[in-house]
Design brief:
This protein has 13 helices and 13 strands. With 400 residues, it is of the alpha/beta class. The chain folds into 2 domains: 142 residues, Alpha-Beta Complex (Aspartate Aminotransferase, domain 1), CATH 3.90.1150; 243 residues, Aspartate Aminotransferase, domain 2 (3-Layer(aba) Sandwich). Helix 7 links the parallel strand 5 and strand 6. Helix 3 packs parallel to helix 8 and helix 10 crosses helix 13. The longest helix has 25 residues. The termini are far apart. Bound molecules: pyridoxal-5'-phosphate (PLP).
Length: 400
């Protein structure tokens, strides 16, 4: 039974409009239903031989098949991890530390997630050379520049599929072809795409691909790395027992993995249904309404090659932080590209690398939609936003 305080909280939460799905997504009720028995009666250690252990092992195997199905992989190609950050670390450090070339180089780009950029910095300290490709104003790399950057000593290309802030998609098919021509392993951080757009590792020439459960209505602290069959061994970044075929030690987070499995199955159904187009249509409806009713709005990111759920806008003369707080007070959750919202005191490295001028970064807002958002919610957000922008612009003029 809920007490009065939690009932009030529940009412409050129910009234909220959540448009920050690139940060995280709510747990799908079916995922929660599947996880609860694993936290209770099915508590066994999958490495144990007795019946509790065997039951947990079966749950793990079923989840592995579900995750593999979502990305067109074989179950043996899925390594469970604690999330996108660990998957990215395992791909980068695992490949770099597992190879023998002298003066080895890795190619990545300026707008990657910190879970790519920071391991790259660590590798630099260990003597590796990192080639960081710049991006254009829409956030895309130049493929000719990628070709020119490849050297005999390049041991890995790691380029994200979609950017979390602006939603820009890289051409992973072409990147994979270029990498394959030169026999260089290609890793893509697909944390923002898996579950949002179809992904098939049989069609996209990719060797490693990172997945995070909490971006597709699964639990936090659970994820996976796809590693193509036949690749040479990774240096395990978590070294311990024989779990995950010695590629990732540690007793498996069975409940989290089961949650990721069910979330993957639900995402696959969603992607195969019409609902997928309806998310893109809803984003377009929102975008058109904003562009029609608020003058001085600039889209940040690529209009064509973009996640179907993401809308990052710079609103001339407004302050993104102030709008975020104003929207939050009205029960609407979004994020900004300026300081603080990202937990950092610096402007977004992504928008900076895209050469977005500072005043536009400070006036940027990111809306990222999810499967449960509705047109009615967008109408409420639209009215609130238009009102807040006009107040905010007046305030900014008074302050100068
Ligand atoms: C593109 C990208 N990669 C990696 C991550 C990290 O994933 P996790 O939160 O599961 O560690 C995120 C999270 O925001 C992300 O957006």
């Amino acid at each position: 039974m809920l007490g009065p305080a939690s009932r009030w909280l529940e009412d409050f939460i129910l009234q909220k409009i959540y448009l920050d799905h690139n940060a995280t997504t709510p747990l799908h009720p079916e995922v929660l239903d599947a996880m609860l028995p694993v936290l209770g009666e099915f508590f066994g250690n999958p490495s144990s031989i007795h019946s509790e252990g065997r039951k947990a092992r079966v749950l793990l195997d079923e989840a592995r098949e579900r995750v593999a199905e979502l990305v067109g992989a074989g179950p043996g190609e899925i390594i469970f991890t604690s999330g996108g950050t660990e998957s990215n670390n395992l791909a980068l450090l695992g490949v770099a530390l597992g190879q023998k070339k002298k003066n080895a180089r890795i190619i990545t780009c300026d707008i990657e997630h910190p879970s790519i950029l920071n391991p790259c910095k660590q590798l630099e300290q260990l003597g590796f050379h990192i080639d960081r490709l710049p991006v254009n104003r829409e956030g895309r790399i130049n493929l000719d520049q990628l070709r020119e950057t490849i050297r005999d000593s390049t041991v890995l290309i790691s380029l994200q599929h979609a950017n979390s802030e602006v939603g820009t998609l890289q051409d992973v098919e072409k990147i994979g072809e270029i990498a394959a021509e030169k026999s260089i392993p290609f890793h893509t951080d697909a944390v923002q795409t898996v579950g949002k757009i179809p992904m098939d590792v049989k069609k996209i020439p990719v060797d490693f691909l990172s997945i995070s459960s909490h971006k597709l209505n699964g639990p936090k602290g659970s994820g996976a790395l796809f590693m193509k069959r036949g690749l040479s061994a990774l240096f395990p970044t978590l070294s311990g027992g024989n779990q995950e075929k010695k590629r990732r030690g540690g007793t498996e987070n069975v409940a989290g993995i089961v949650g990721l499995g069910i979330a993957s199955e639900l995402a696959k159904k969603h992607l195969e249904s019409d609902a997928r187009n309806s998310l893109a249509n809803l984003r377009e409806y929102f975008s058109e309404r904003i562009e029609d009713s608020i003058p001085g709005v600039t889209l940040l990111g690529d209009r064509e090659f973009r996640l179907p759920n993401t809308l990052n806008l710079s609103i001339d003369g407004a302050n993104g932080e102030a709008l975020l707080i104003g929207l939050d007070v009205q029960g609407i959750s979004v994020s900004t590209g300026s300081a603080c919202s990202s937990g950092s005191s610096l402007p977004s490295h992504v928008l900076t690398a895209m050469q977005v001028p500072e005043h536009r970064i400070n006036s940027s807002l990111r809306f990222s939609l999810g499967i449960s958002n509705t047109k009615e919610e967008i109408d409420v957000v639209m009215d609130t936003l238009a009102r807040l922008v006009s107040l905010n612009r007046k305030d900014s003029r008074v302050v100068g």
